[in-house]
């Protein structure tokens, strides 16, 4: 699932600045973006990276946090698709 920076932050329920700090720590990106072009992330790659490096905000129950993130990511993509279809 491809998400931009803001969508990724919503999916993982973290601040945009957290995503920025993950990027500094070499969080995987599909593309780095640029002026006026958002960075693109693959949710699965980031989830694996977060899990591997134990970066979650409350890592006492990482599987639940990752599952919740997946559900939010799916909702974000469904809303994006709906906007494209009806917008």
Describe the structure.
It is a single chain. With about 90 residues, this protein is mostly helical. It contains 4 helices and 2 strands; from the N terminus they run βααβαα. The two termini are about 20 Å apart.
Q: What would you say about this model in short?
A:
By secondary structure, this protein is mainly α.
Radius of gyration: 13 Å
Which sequence of strands runs across the widest sheet?
A: 1-2
Identify the CATH class: Mainly Alpha
Strand element count: 2
**Sheet of most strands:** 2 strands, antiparallel
β-sheet strand percentage? 5-15%
Poorly predicted residue ranges: none
Architecture (CATH level 2) name: Orthogonal Bundle
Average pLDDT taken over every residue: 87
What order do the helices and strands follow?
EHHEHH
End-to-end Cα distance? 21 Å
Structural class: mainly alpha
Overall spatial form: globular
Count the DSSP helices: 4
Tally of domains:
1
Helix proportion of residues, in percent?
55-70%
CATH topology term: Arc Repressor Mutant, subunit A
How would the blueprint of this fold be written?
Elements: E1 2-4, H1 5-12, H2 16-24, E2 40-42, H3 43-53, H4 62-86
Antiparallel strand pairs: 1-2
Helix pairs in contact: 1-4
Keywords, separated by commas or semicolons:
87 residues; mainly alpha; Arc Repressor Mutant, subunit A; 2 strands
């Amino acid at each position: 699932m491809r998400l931009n920076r803001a969508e990724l932050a919503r999916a993982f329920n973290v601040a945009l600045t957290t995503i920025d700090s993950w990027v500094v720590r070499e969080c995987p990106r599909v593309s780095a973006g640029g002026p006026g072009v958002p960075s693109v992330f693959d949710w699965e790659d980031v989830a694996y990276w977060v899990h591997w490096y134990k970066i979650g905000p409350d890592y006492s129950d990482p599987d639940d946090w990752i599952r919740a993130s997946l559900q939010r990511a799916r909702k974000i993509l469904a809303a994006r698709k709906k906007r494209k279809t009806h917008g």
